[in-house]
Queue: 3 jobs
Job 1
Amino acid sequence: MALRACGFIVFRLAGCVAPPDNIEYLLLQTSYGKHHWTPPKGHVDPGEDDLTTALRETKEEAGLGAEHLQVIEGFVQELRYEVGGRPKEVLYWLAELKDPGTAVTLSDEHQDYRWSRLEDACTLAGYKDLQDTLRAAQRYLEARQDKL
């Protein structure tokens, strides 16, 4: 059975920049392994539903709770890959940071964080499937802005 993890692609809207260049994504740098960069995510606890996991992990890893986030309806991406020879599934929802000035508070699992526009975020992310997920989030947000 695959390991299952859930998280949020957290974004904020930078104030003085025109769309779509005002979208910045939160990436956290791990304090273990190869110090890779990812959005906040973590393993599902027994009896926990996926969205609850995403909220809990985002609070634990970045200090951003449900009160700080607006979950964007209609966007969820599933990534599948192997870690240590075992299959892993990761679900990412999209969430806007309600107040772009809210501070990020890292857990011991991470050593750094960055708010980055799409291309910089993709460079930090490194893995193609995560880059594709970030690009899908950007397309989704741009399509939503066109409708507003």
Job 2
Amino acid sequence: MTLEEILIEKPTERAQGTGSALEEVLVSAKDNDSITVGVYECAKVMNLDPDSVSFCVLAMDEEFECDIALQIHFTLIQSFCFDNDISIVRVSDMQRLAEIVGDKAEQLEDAHCVLITNPADGSWEDPALEKLHLFCEESRRINDWVPEISLPER
């Protein structure tokens, strides 16, 4: 998909398509044990093995908008992603993100940051992940450095 095709596409269709792709990638990464959840856990992975990180999702709900510490963490994570050419998006529904990446048995309190990592053997590839990388690349071309994606409702 070219930039012109994306710009012509209706914004709601574009968001829905990328939201579905993001959900598909998150489920697939979870099944392949290629996912890290939580701000501190993600920071550890980024520090120890930044080359393994393929994609970053930041989630914000209204109740956390005034959390200065979380905003500082987000700024540092975004900077790290930009410096290491890691695609990054925002979602506005942390609860929905937690539903997708968490197990039914556990309640995820910190789903503010989710990383999708590449397995060491490189065996996992997902066409939806390529679509998300292209979406991020095209968004950067129109100066939307951290695009927001809406996850589909259940």
Job 3
Amino acid sequence: MEELSSIQSLQALSALLSTAADEESDEEDTKNVKPMAKMGPGHIGASSSTSGKEKKAVSSVYLKKNTTDIWDVEEVTEGTHLDDLTDPRPQPEYDIILKQSVGTEDLFLGMSRKDPSSMCCESMLIKVKLPDTKTSDVMLDVRETFLDLRTPKYKLGLHLPHPVHSGEGTARFVTEKSELEITLPMNRPLDVINLV
């Protein structure tokens, strides 16, 4: 008797899961749906009843944006003229460290509203490892959002994560480590509010 009930259970389960039942139920469900509910993602955008001129304008804009580029050159103009893609020199290793001045009133009393976030940092330290390089061989150009470093063996074109005061930075070459340390004060519009 138990075998018969298990067979019936399997047949009932098979009937529930059959594709024919699914297709019939889908057809029944779509009969009661209003036309607006049948719209899908393909219906978004300009309708097919637009004039010929509008179709050309829409398609040309779409074709311009339908490239493999992530962004247009017009969107990223600063520093792109400094990127020299034909230069075979390798990029040196570098680290970007954000620094902030912290006093005892910050550390023990928390009086100056500073926190460990990058919004409260005053300067950026960039450490560039330049093995087998002399101090006299280093050429450094710092812009507000771009750092250009060139030596006979290395080339570094670095887009900075925050704008900096390019004329107020300092650089020193540590010969023991063969490392150039560049300290740049950050330039952000809310520095007056955050660093008071």
